[in-house]
Amino acid sequence: MGTPTQITDTPPPAPQPAIDKRAARGATRPGDRIFLGLSRGSGILLLVIMAAIAGFLTYRAVLAISEDEGNFLTTFEWNTGVTPPVFGIAVLAYGTIVSSIIAMIIAVPVSVAIALFLTHYAPRRLRGPIAYVIDLLAAVPSIVYGLWGALVLVPHMNGLFGWLNDYLGWTGIFSWQGGAARSMLTVGILLAIMILPIITNVSREVFRQVPQMHEEAALALGATRWEVIRMAVIPFGRSGVISASMLGLGRALGETMAVATVLSPDFLIHSSLLDPGGGTFAQNIASKFSEATEFGRDALIASGLVLFVITLLVNGAARAIIARRKEYSGANA
Amino acid sequence: MAKRIDVSGLTAYYGSHKAIEDISMTVEPRSVTAFIGPSGCGKSTFLRTLNRMHEVTSGGRVEGKVLLDDEDLYGTGIDPVSVRREVGMVFQRPNPFPTMSIFDNVAAGLRLNGDYKKSELADIVERSLKGANLWNEVKDRLNKPGSGLSGGQQQRLCIARAIAVEPNVLLMDEPCSALDPISTLAIEDLIGELKERFTIVIVTHNMQQAARVSDRTAFFNLAAVGQPGKLIEIDDTERIFSNPSVQATEDYISGRFG
């Protein structure tokens, strides 16, 4: 823009009329003003709601925890009806995290495989119908999953559990005494089916957006179809798949009715994933809330606060993973 | 390394639409052949039949013969994947793999082809980047992403990636159309050097570029929109631009249409 240092005798140019800030924001016409107000209001409302939830949970939780006779984080017990009350979230945290991890281990690879099949392998006329069926899976209410899990999945798990016990029982985490299969592994499998559609759909969308030119670059180097997927499609879609998985994980962590219907809860951490028992935050709240006293409800809310924090941490971790790979994400291609 | 391309009676379709019809030509090894012609005349389609990229597009199919020395690329039992390992391609828009570093971009094709020792790989990457006149600009940041380079550098990176696997033929589909004049000049100089080692075919809309870089020029045209593109003539570049034998060619290069 011209020469930066030019010495002249002329006085500095008269100040330009300052650009109207409101005009620069595009908020002069009534329509713009209304839309600006609406969109800004929505943004603020969201923050207010989040803050209100956090505030409410924290306030009630503090009331409960201050009365807790046991250690809130390490106690294997949930007894809010006695004085002094003794309760802790250790079992719930373990059950929530373990069942969600099992669900993720099963659902993420399967979802990514389905998404790749739909975008890169399936014949064009099969893509629509298959995607539609997967969407239907997402539309099934969770109580229906729960009923199906309790009535169909649980009785049919015995074969798998026996096999796992025979071959992997020595590890401890797959040993089985032969009880009903109302265990963490069954819950994990059920959750995997429930989060499969969302992970599949988001991954499919991401894989579909891989620019043609990246795939052609790989093809022109003599890549096979699988090599194209490995070189161009999966790296491009990685951060999207991580986001998709986190959406699924969020659902798995908070899933209530399906878990409550399938699990036979107790307040122990079982070393084997096949032993019935355990519990999750959401399941515990749902099972106990209706019969809880005022204080019991506060205690349940305290456990809800922990779930809230875990979910926030998971989302934060996902964002950190995505941000770390940003340079290579393909967003700047 | 460089091989002769011998095309006879080649017709290419998109579904039922005939894109190019009955094209025959010979491209000599270690030469640069430029394809010129108006938009839609099928020169890019023809280029993509030379490494079997045309059939990647849905509905794309080809009739006719393309001989690379004596091997028919469309012969029975020929794997398109192995054809593409022999015939490299550079695209209109620079397309380095965004998730890979500069080094990995150049090494990508080699890693597909087999096992190389780390030191071998480093040697070939260096040689290819030098071959693409990019080494001095990137030697200190080989581990940085390729997408951080300027457009012209990215295109030279793509050329380095293509020549790293030592193809017999290098196809370039309007390689400079997304670049500024200085980067274009760098690529044109590079083409002059690369033709010592490779058979090069380049599609271009820029007639000065065709005149500057090529030994032979082929002019493509189509009778009307919807009609298949045809090869009008192919001759020494000098002759095409001074005294072409077909009136349509002269009209096109002198700017009377197209």
From TrEMBL, chain A:
Protein name: Phosphate transport system permease protein
Topology in membrane: Multi-pass membrane protein
Primary localization: membrane
Keyword Cell membrane: yes
CDD domains (alphabetical): TM_PBP2 (cd06261)
Family the UniProt entry places it in: Belongs to the binding-protein-dependent transport system permease family. CysTW subfamily.
Taxonomic lineage from the root: Bacteria, Bacillati, Actinomycetota, Actinomycetes, Kitasatosporales
Regions crossing the membrane: 43-66, 86-118, 130-154, 174-199, 299-318
Domain (ABC transmembrane type-1): residue spans on this chain: 93-318
